[in-house]
Design brief:
Layout lengths: L1 H7 L19 H35 L2 H11 L4 H9 E3 L11 H8 L5 E10 L16 H9 L5 H5 L12 H12 L4 E11 L2 E13 L3 E8 L4 E8 L8 E8 L7 E12 L4 E9 L3 E10 L8 E18 L5 E17 L11 E17 L12 E18 L9 E18 L3 E15 L3 E14 L2 E15 L2 E3 L2 E15 L28 E17 L2 E15 L11 E11 L8 E7 L11 E6 L21
Parallel strand pairs: 2-4
Antiparallel strand pairs: 1-21, 3-4, 5-6, 6-7, 7-8, 8-9, 9-10, 10-11, 11-12, 12-13, 13-14, 14-15, 15-16, 16-17, 17-18, 18-20, 19-20, 20-21, 21-22, 22-23, 23-24, 24-25
Helix pairs in contact: 3-4
Length: 642
């Protein structure tokens, strides 16, 4: 949620939504550079494709599949080494069921429309081994059996509570498919398949079989630096004891801390009493900040949800080293925040359960109240004034989902939203010293084209209005393209292209707040002094997926090219320096584990050197670079730059 990000940065006060105004531009030089880049990339892709085709012919001629079969044959002997080798090397064709999508299932499901659901059966599959497409598979390696024995499976009633259909209800295909999607979005679920079963001699009824496969839900870390004598311990479980709840606890040790240590923790209750309400309680502290709170609520997670909302109470104490009082001591700011929101979704025509895509209007309101119990005496900019912010939103969306794989993950079934959305925002901030209205607009459109792939476009703009001036103006425009899966022999590859323009300006407090570091622009690039009020990004990536696994970990090779322009508000963006980054690398992940995707990259920055004067850099990332805006109607919020 947007307010958590502001809280975490200690910026939960008026005036920290810096935004900008647009300047005239000259495209000639930059477009020339962009065209040259695309020509270079196109030539590279053609070379890669030819290389893969050539390699495929070589592989086929050598019959490398015979090598795997030899390993399998030798593992039948009581040889410990060959048993180990067989358990860790797996061909993708042995896991073919994992990349079978459910389009045939949709046709079968529709044949049961109108029947009565007699019984619902739930079966929770182990993390390793069987799949929802082959649930009876009992062939496992000793490593898989060991992992399964250490995992606590999700309780069957937890999954049953996420279904939006019941025993005794009429069978509606949309409810079956929507239940699959809702369950699959649970972080502790790898995949789900819901199958209607005909009943012998009973033609008007049907039984439902629900297969669910868990992911390994437990994660943790331990670190210690003998030289600095500091360290940390943490544990995280997204399916605590199989109840679908999240637990986190962490402890930090450092001599510079006031007590020599600090801690943080949280616990989230999921889907309380089958209402899809979630409750969260949390506490954290570090050298300069202490925060804690409690919340409860739910979003519009499905088109069948008519009402959504939430309540949160948050407290925060922050010390600001850059602000000293008259005695030369660090100022401390204490405040509490109450946050309430409520939304209603409706349609002008009756809900049609036979359609996959549904139209919905949405009306939502939000009230956020900040009350300061302690603040600096000198606050000329009114950063810490008591205030109440009223926010309203009215919008419309048309939504359906397309199932695919290998877009953001490495084999897990993904539900890609295909949406048209438009929303108008109006807010009013009432402060103890001044008040001002807020105006905003958000829109987005995404679709899938079978020969080409996925297309996405989004536009957002918002600003406060005071004294005939637009304050904290934000302007964001983004387009993305993901190609379809391309196959060359047993290798597969996909292209990603993204362009983003962001602008931020506040005439009362003009300062540059945006950068192009790493996820904000150029991967592997970092310059804390390079900031601006507006930026334009162009990112390109090709992922080549390997046709084998190692201990369940799948591998993809990455090639990327990142371009960025950034400037202050007083300068033309297209007369600024074109920053560039090119690189190669790989990413690896076992989708059955909670651990993040590991990406190791090697980057080249031809016209930009790092602080050490080096134009090359090796780095790693734990986050996927590309993210898709789902255009969900959740808590109303102002337009901000991530």
């Amino acid at each position: 949620m947007d307010k958590f990000k502001r809280i975490a940065n200690g910026r939960n006060t008026r005036g920290f939504y810096q935004q900008h105004m647009l300047n005239p531009i000259n495209l000639k030089n930059t477009l020339s550079q962009f065209i040259n880049l695309f020509l270079t990339i196109s030539i590279f892709i053609i070379c890669i494709s030819d290389f893969l085709i050539a390699q495929e012919k070589i592989v086929e001629s050598k019959d490398t599949s015979k090598v795997v079969r030899d390993i399998e044959d030798k593992s039948e002997n009581d040889n410990f080494f060959w048993h180990i080798l067989k358990s860790i090397i797996v061909r993708d064709d042995e896991q073919q069921s994992e990349i079978t999508l459910t389009d045939p299932d949709k046709k079968i499901i529709k044949n049961f429309t109108g029947k009565i659901i007699r019984k619902i059966n739930i079966e929770i599959l182990d993390v390793f081994g069987a799949s929802v497409y082959n649930p009876k598979d009992t062939i496992r390696s000793w490593l898989q059996d060991s992992g399964n024995s250490l995992h606590i499976n999700t309780k069957e009633w937890i999954i049953k509570n996420k279904l939006i259909f019941f025993e005794g209800q009429i069978f509606i295909p949309f409810y079956i498919l929507e239940s699959e999607r809702i369950i699959r979005e649970s972080p502790y679920v790898y995949d789900v398949r819901i199958i209607p079963k005909p009943i012998a001699n009973i033609v008007d009824s049907v039984d439902i079989m629900v297969y669910v496969q868990d992911v390994w839900s437990l994660n943790g870390s331990v670190s210690y630096s003998p030289g600095n004598k500091n360290g940390s311990v943490s544990i995280y479980d997204i399916n605590f004891l199989g109840y679908g709840n999240k637990f986190y606890g962490g402890l930090n040790f450092d001599r510079e801390l006031t007590r020599g240590w600090d801690w943080d923790g949280s616990y989230t209750f999921d889907n309380i009493e089958r209402t899809f309400l979630s409750a969260n309680i949390y506490y954290s502290t570090d050298m300069y900040r202490e925060q804690y709170g409690v919340s409860i609520g739910r979003n519009f997670l499905s088109q069948i949800i008519s009402w959504a909302g939430g309540i949160e109470q948050h407290w925060q104490n922050t010390r600001y080293p850059e602000i000293l009082n008259s005695s030369g001591l660090i100022e401390t700011v204490r405040y509490n925040q109450q946050d309430y929101w409520l939304g209603y979704a409706f349609n002008l025509r009756q809900f049609d359960s036979s359609e996959e895509n549904q139209n919905a209007f949405n009306v939502s309101g939000r009230i956020t109240r900040n009350v300061f119990s302690q603040k600096p005496r000198l606050d000329t900019l009114n950063l810490f004034q008591d205030n109440t912010f009223y926010m309203s939103r009215i919008g419309y969306s048309n939504r359906k989902y397309y199932q695919d794989q290998y877009i953001f993950g490495l084999g897990k079934t993904e539900d890609i939203p295909l949406v048209y959305m438009i929303a108008f925002l109006y807010g009013y901030e009432v402060g103890s010293n001044s008040s001002r209205p807020y105006y905003g607009f958000k829109s987005g459109y995404s679709f899938h084209n079978d020969p080409l792939g996925y297309f996405y476009g989004g536009f957002q703009i918002g600003a406060f209005r005071s004294n005939q001036k637009w304050l904290n103006l934000t302007y964001i425009m983004e387009v993305m393209y993901f190609s379809n899966f391309n196959v060359v022999g047993k290798w597969k590859w996909r292209q990603y292209i993204r362009s983003n323009y962001s602008y931020s300006y506040d005439p009362i407090r003009p300062r540059d707040i945006m950068n192009i570091n790493n996820e904000s622009g150029i991967r592997g690039f970092s310059d804390d002094y390079l900031k601006g009020g507006k930026k334009l990004l162009l990112n390109y990536e090709v992922d080549i997926f390997a046709p084998f696994q190692f201990l369940g970990f799948k591998l993809a090779f990455i090639t990327f090219a990142d371009l960025a322009l950034i400037s202050s508000n007083n300068n033309s963006l297209f007369t600024s320096k074109l920053y560039q980054g090119y690189g190669i690398g790989f990413k690896i992940k076992n989708e059955h584990l909670i651990f993040p995707t590991f990406q190791f990259m090697f980057g080249f920055y031809p016209n930009t050197s790092h602080a050490d004067g080096n134009n090359f850099k090796a780095f790693h990332q734990n986050e996927i670079y590309y993210h898709l805006n789902k255009f969900e109607f959740s808590i109303p919020s102002i337009v901000t730059i991530e």
